[in-house]
């Protein structure tokens, strides 16, 4: 998932064999030089994406059935800082 202030959008991707594939996106104002909150809730094959606490969209992906990994990614044309990263197992 990525929030892009240069393009004013939030996009949700999957990585398969080192290739990025876009699954869903939303055009929304992403202001530069401000703290923003980007959220992802994964429940089985359903993913809910939030931006500053507001739901943007949901996406479904059945590519990976089991537990996976989490990674952080930024583009070279951005300055990105991470203040707090939380990963919680849903009960």
Number of separate helices: 0
The average pLDDT is 88
- Measured by DSSP, the beta-strand proportion falls in 35-45%
- Helical fraction equals under 10%
Q: Can you write the helix and strand succession as a string?
A: EEEEEE
- Rg over CA atoms, rounded to whole Å, is 13 Å
Q: What does this 3D model show about the protein?
A:
By secondary structure, this protein is mainly β. The protein has a domain at 2-60. The chain has no helices and six strands. It has strands at 2-4, 9-16, 19-27, 38-43, 46-51, 54-60. The strands form two sheets. A three-stranded antiparallel β-sheet has the order 1-2-3, with no helix packed on it. The radius of gyration is 13 Å and the shape is globular. The two termini are 23 Å apart. The relative contact order is 0.21. The mean pLDDT is 88.
Key descriptive features of the protein:
mainly beta, single chain, 6 strands, 3-stranded antiparallel β-sheet, 43% strand
Task: Give a short synopsis of this structure.
By secondary structure, the protein is mainly beta.
SSE map:
Elements: E1 2-4, E2 9-16, E3 19-27, E4 38-43, E5 46-51, E6 54-60
